[in-house]
Amino acid sequence: MKFKSALRALLGSFREQAISRATDNFFIGTLFIQPVLFTLLSVGIYRYGGKPDLSLYAVIGAGMIGIWNNNLWTSGSIVQDERRGGTLELLVAAPTSLEIVLLGKSLSNAVASILALAITFATGLLAYRLPLDIEQPLAFAGAVLLTLVAMTMLGLLLGSLFVLARAAGQLATVLNYPIFILSGLTFPLTVLPLWIRPLSYSLVSTWGNLALARAAGAVAQSSLWVTYLALAGLSVLYFILGHYLYRLIERIVRERGGLEQW
Amino acid sequence: MAAIQTIALSRVYHSKTGVIRQQKKDIRALEEVNLEVAQGELFGLLGPNGAGKTTLTKILSTILLPSSGDARVLGLDIVSQARAIRPRIGIVFGGERGLYWRLSARDTLLYFADLYHVSPEVAARRIPELLELVGLSGRHEERVENFSRGMKQRLHVARGLINDPEILFLDEPTIGLDPVAAREIRRIMKDLNQQGKTIFLTSHYMYEVDELCDRVAVLNKGEIILVDTPGALKSLVSDLEVVEIEVIGAQQDAIERLRAHEKVVSLQIEPRDLAQALLIQAPGGAALVGDFLTILSGARIQRILTRQPTLEDAYVRLVGPEAMHT
Question: Which of A169, B88, B114, B224 sits most deeply, having the most CB atoms within 10 A of its CB?
Fold first, then answer.
């Protein structure tokens, strides 16, 4: 019964977030326009730069940029939006744990962001006549699924970090482009200096991109399992961190009163 | 068992001032509040802005933690048993915030039904009933962003009732509403109370409290200064009459002389377009009108009336006229 109630609350939160985002022009713009532009640019750079064999890698990278961007902006602002709208206190006062609500909303954002991948493939096909040639379709589906889970957990973590950081908008802007580069979404990780790569490997966007690219055959084959394990491991780590941060938020809301003093 | 009980409940907010040399400042929002509300009672909490009404409502509805003291809702401790209290209470705040503007009225209620663990079967039956109760039946598919302020407030009430709560907390539910919309909300409150629900209402509006409440508490600067029936509260000023003088161009020194008149208990000033209304409380007020007009000679008197004191007059006497303008 408890599990059923929690699941219904999670799905209800998923639905609320989906409806709210689907009617938000900023979100639509980020979700649809940006992946198209990044695909056109990235594939163009590789194609006309003499490396057409990296076109599929560029398409996947552009898709991951869309996925990252959507999660950064939408999941990162979940708690802020609730606070601004005066609904955060109502969520705290409801019998459902705030964490379930935010997990449902992060999942909703992650599912929507996966659309970015479909849009980049469609753009590659229409603009550059790139065939949708996925080498291992099942492994690719697995990579999409694990990326989705990892992005949901990232959303949970980002939401709390952004509340604690106060200036969410500025932080999102600061994080946006460096993560593209750090995660190898625009250029392969091998072009990055060695000392910075550990940071790259702590990001789910890096492993999501590698898993998708390896399953699609866009880069030289190496073990897919490593990418799967890394995505699963980072998901667990993000969940644990997000869990504790949300507990902290819940306590702060009750202690300080509506987060007005952040 | 009381529906609500507080013992020496206090709440302090901590704030900081300054930029470089920050100083911590404590603001005492509630001071040793003792209250008891019976089950099925419609209880009113009156107080000027900043008196602590919202803070008390938030503590009782488990949104805020108290700094000290105890509070029990339905016999459960609000700190350690908050999770057991939440499914049994409903909360309605006044104003336009607290709703998801892009959802329809029906989707809003569906969402909160999920959050309150209301089974889909019960929700399917209850949501149309609630929409009917608050008069939104024909508009349930429209997005909240298209609703008028009154419609949003009625939706707030329906949302607060989604779990069929035993206690409904209403924090200034009619604030900013036009008279027709406010009357509609008051009708709903009355109906709910008649159905046996305990209602804890905070309000600025005396006539609302007078019309609805079984008992009323007056909160001023975080302290409860009186708990009684509206009738008993009014009897505090039963020896007085109120003289209302609508005047243009009254000099400040004339107003001060009026205030200093030996019989005047309280003088409150209300702006009315170009004029000011001087509300003077005094025993045998009608007999003093001549005195008052002599003091105000030179100013243009538009209207004079004398009347029996209302609950508002009793409230003014308790909290002081300056509290009416905070």
Answer: B114
pTM above 0.80, yes or no: yes
Distance from CA of A43 to the nearest CA of B (A): 37
pLDDT category at A262 given cuts 50, 70, 90 is very low
- C-alpha span between B102 and A17 (Å, rounded): 10
Distance from first CA to last CA of chain A, Å, rounded? 37
Cα A231 to Cα A208: distance, rounded to the nearest angstrom: 7
Q: What one-letter code names the amino acid at A236?
A: V
Determine, for residues B110 and A20 on separate chains, whether the beta-carbon distance falls below 8 Å: no
Percent of all residues in chain B with a pLDDT value above 90, rounded to a whole number: 45
Place of tokens 């900043």: B50
| A93/B99 CB distance under 8 A | no
- Is the pLDDT score of A113 beyond 70? yes
Q: Would you state the structure tokens that stand for residue B130, as one six-digit string?
A: 């609630």
Nearest to B102 among A13, A20, A254 (CB): A20
- Are residues B28 and B10 in contact, defined by beta-carbon separation less than 8 angstroms? yes
Nearest-Cα distance to chain A for B258, in Å, is 43
Residues of chain A found within 8 Å of residue B111, distances taken between Cβ atoms: 12-13, 15-16
CA atoms within 13 A on the CB side of B249: 6
Lowest mean pLDDT among B158-172, B186-200, B213-227, B231-245: B231-245
In the block, tokens 């961007």 appear at: A69
- Provide the pairing of β-strand B198-203 with B167-171: parallel
Span B181-219, pLDDT tens digits: 788 888 889 999 999 999 999 987 888 888 899 999 998
Closest by CA position to B309, among listed B277, B285, B275, B290: B285
How far apart (Å, rounded) are the C-alpha atoms in residues B99 and B72? Answer: 28
Residue closest to A17 by CA, chosen among A73, A64, A60:
A73
Q: State the pLDDT at residue A223.
A: 81
Contact between B299 and B247 under an 8 Å Cβ cutoff? The reply is: yes
Residues of chain A with Cβ-Cβ distance to B61 below 8 Å are 93
Q: How far is CA A152 from the centre of its chain?
A: 7
Question: Given the structure tokens 């902290």, which residue do they identify?
Answer: A248
Residue B217 φ/ψ, nearest 5 degrees: -115, 140
Task: With cut-offs at 50, 70 and 90, classify the pLDDT of residue B47.
Answer: confident
Strand partners, B218: B46, B226
Quick: pLDDT tens for A217-234. 877 666 888 999 999 999
Three-class SS string for chain A?
CHHHHHHHHHHHHHHHHHHHHHCCHHHHHHHHHHHHHHHHHHHHHHHHCCCHHHHHHHHHHHHHHHHHHHHHHHHCCHHHHHHHHCCHHHHHHCCCCHHHHHHHHHHHHHHHHHHHHHHHHHHHHHHHCCCCCCCCHHHHHHHHHHHHHHHHHHHHHHHHHHHHHCCHHHHHHHHHHHHHHHCCCCCCHHHCCHHHHHHHCCCHHHHHHHHHHHHHCCCCCCCHHHHHHHHHHHHHHHHHHHHHHHHHHHHHHHHHHCCCCC
CA distance B216 to B182: 19
